[in-house]
Write a structure and sequence with these properties.
Strand content: 15-25%
Structural class: alpha/beta
Helix content: 40-55%
Radius of gyration: 20 Å
Number of helices: 9
Order of helices and strands: EHEHEHEEEHEHEHEEHHEH
Strand order of the largest sheet: 7-6-8-5-9-11
Largest sheet: 6 strands, mixed
Shape: globular
Distance between the termini: 45 Å
Length: 335
């Protein structure tokens, strides 16, 4: 089966422009032939998202008797996070996993899960996904991409190297931004926003490029944040999600039993992933505390300041998202 001309390793050269890669098509494989897919991710191999992806790949292999093999590429080793969607859409990789909110500049609906304080518990985050899923699927389908499953991160808190008791205490911080929402928060509190993706965060912290950021306990643990910072405030501002998707042409080229095996494994991965993150969130907080981090609840003043920021950012998002964004929020609130 001619499945792709994707690079086989992180050292392989990748194109700089989308136009240099024509959209590829896949021919159906002969009976009994083995098909191989590449699935890049931006996160380290011991992160729960990668554990779940690895289990997904094994489930697919087991269910198909090895007919479909999915190679997981961790730690942005094949493509950097912001490159993964384009790689899948253009056929450089057959599947991929990304933090969906990094696409918010492309379309506001991709950032609905990071609207501050809209959905701050795992049950509410799932409701928000169910409300937004049809629209997200429609927009990605227009680019030749089919959604397989989504898995959350832990609730987002603030990492810093000093006490932060009010919003004013954040002024002047070198603030790591990874999407539109975190960049706007930095702007609103008077911090200096610097765009840094997860794979580059440890180096950015070590070199002082950033000295504060908002993320989950897992990101802090993966980045060994205790080596440079001292405080974590459990603000639970939002619960972002990763989405795993596949090039639709690659999926359509599979025979029907293999397609069904992929979809069944994807449904299992979604349930497993949500359960995993619910169980791991407090574990990560405990682990960074053991390493010397102060894990704290936000003060009433800081919480109030963030609620005010949340109200402004929600209004901003609804203005950008328009009628379809308002319809999704209304559907979510009725659940």
């Amino acid at each position: 089966m001619q499945w792709s001309s994707a690079p086989a390793s992180a050292s392989a050269k990748r194109p700089r422009s989308i136009c240099t890669w024509p959209r590829l098509t896949w021919a159906s494989a002969p009976a009994g032939a083995q098909t191989k897919w590449n699935l890049p991710s931006a996160y380290p191999i011991d992160n729960p998202h990668l554990e779940n992806l690895t289990a997904f790949a094994k489930d697919v292999s087991d269910a198909t008797g090895g007919k479909l093999q999915i190679q997981i590429h961790a730690g942005a080793s094949l493509f950097k996070g912001p490159e993964i969607k384009r790689a899948v859409a253009t056929g450089q990789a057959q599947a991929g996993e990304i933090l969906i909110s990094i696409l918010e500049n492309e379309d506001p609906i991709f950032g609905i899960d990071v609207v501050p304080f809209l959905a701050t518990s795992f049950p509410d985050a799932m409701k928000l996904w169910k409300a937004s899923k049809p629209l997200v699927e429609k927009k990605l389908a227009a680019q030749g991409i089919m959604v397989l499953f989504t898995v959350p991160w832990g609730p987002q808190g603030i990492y810093a190297k000093k006490d932060i008791n009010t919003i004013e205490d954040m002024k002047g911080l070198k603030w790591r931004a990874y999407n539109v929402g975190t960049a706007r928060i930095g702007e609103m509190v008077g911090a200096q926003a610097v765009t840094v993706q997860a794979a580059e965060l440890p180096q950015a912290l070590a070199t002082g490029v950033v000295n504060a950021f908002m993320s989950s306990g897992a990101t802090g643990y993966d980045s060994k944040v205790w080596e440079t910072l001292t405080h974590f405030y459990d603000t639970r501002a939002w619960i972002p999600r990763n989405v795993t998707f596949v090039n639709k042409a690659a999926f359509d080229a599979l025979d029907k039993p293999t397609q069904e095996a992929v979809l069944k494994a994807a449904a299992t991965a979604e349930v497993r992933g949500w359960q995993l993150w619910e169980s791991k969130t407090e574990w990560y907080h405990d682990e960074i505390a053991k390493k010397g981090m102060k894990v704290l609840k936000p003060s009433p003043a800081l919480a109030a300041g963030f609620r005010k920021i949340g109200e402004q950012l929600t209004a901003d998002w609804l203005k950008r998202a328009g009628a379809e964004g308002q319809a999704v929020v209304d559907a979510y609130r009725k659940m």
